[in-house]
Amino acid sequence: MTAMMRKYLLAWMCLQLPMLAHAEPPGPASVAAPVAEAERYARRCQSQSLHRTVKPQGTMLWGTRRDWDTEKVADERSSVLVSVGLEPLRLADAQVKAMKLEGGLLVATSATSPARGLPAGRGVVGTVLQGRASDGKPVEVAICGAEPSPEDPGMAWYRIEAWNAVAQEWENPCVALARVPDPRALAVGGVWDESGAHHPTPGRFTFACENGAITKCISWGYKPWASHAGQSLAHFHQACTRMARADYCGNGRSHTHEDTALDIYDRLGVLARTTEASAGWEPARASFEAAWATDGATCLARTRDGRALSAILQECPNRFRTGAALELGKGERCTVRRTDMSPAAALLSNQSYEPPKGAVPQDKGP
C-alpha cells in the first residue's frame, strides 16, 4: 500500500469514528433495557423526566396519564395508576414498619408505636409503595415530597413518581396542564374503577392528581373523609366527580372540556348558588344543566359540550326517559329524567354556559 493510500484510509477512518459513536443501538428504540432493583430505587425522586409532552383530552378522573406509551391512543377510562396499597412497603426507612391513611394524611408507623405514628409524618417521604394500573399490572410508586396543606392541617399534597416499565425510569404519573405544570397528588381512601364508581377498599387508597376530578371536588369543599351539618361528605364527593366530568350515564365517560366554567350548589349548603357576577362567572349567561347523584345525573336540561340529548339516551338506553318537562323550581327545568330515581334525590346541581351553536363535541378516544 502506497503512502498516499494509507493517508487517505486514515483520514476516512477519522471521519467515521464520530458517526459510529452517535449511531443508534440495535433493536427497537421504544424498549429500554431492564434496570436492576437497587439501581431502580436509587433513581427515584431524581426528576429525570421533566420534559414530557402531554396533551390531555376531556376532564380526567384520576388526573393521571392513560398509558406509558405516548404513541398509543388509550381510552379515557384507563390509567397508569388507579390505586396504591398501604402494604407491602417496597422500600422504606429502617424504622418504618407500616403506613396508614388518616383522613387526607399518610402516616408512617414503627414497630414500637404502631398506633401513634412517627412524629410530623416522618418516614413517609422516600417510601416506595406497590400500586396498580387500570389493566391490573403492578406499578411501584415513590413518595418524593409531602407538603402540608395551608388550608387544612388534616391533608397534605404529595409529590409522587411511578416506575415507567416501558422507559425504565421514574416519572410523575400526573398529567401536566398549563395552569398546573408540575401537579401534585392527594391521598384519598378507596379505589375508583373504570366506570367512575368509588369502592371503599380496605388497605388501598388513590393518589388523586391535582388536575383530576377527584382532587378538584376535594378542593371545592367535598372532602370524603369529612362531614358537614352532621352528614358525611363521601356521597357528595362522589356525586361531584360525576358532575365535574359531566358523566351523565355514570359509566365513566365525560362530556365536557377542560377549564369549563361551572356553578355548583348542593342541598347541604357546602356550596351555594352564585348570584353575583365576577371575573370568572356571569350568572346572566348561565342556565341549569343537570342534577346529580353518586352514579350520574338524575335529570338533565341539556348537555355541557353541545351534543344532542338523544346521544346520551343512546349511550345509556333505558336509564332516562323523556316526556313533559319537570319543573324543579328556581328556574331549574328537567328535559329528561331517570327512570329509577326521582330528581329530588339529587345531592348536587349545577349551572353552566350553554355551548356555542354548532359546537362539535371533542373526541375522547375509543
TrEMBL record:
Domain ADYC: from-to ranges: 122-305
Signal sequence segment: 1-23
Region span, Disordered: 346-366
UniProt KW keywords: Signal
Source superkingdom: Bacteria
Protein name (record): ADYC domain-containing protein
InterPro entries: ADYC (IPR045426)
Species lineage: Bacteria, Pseudomonadati, Myxococcota, Myxococcia, Myxococcales
Pfam families (alphabetical): ADYC
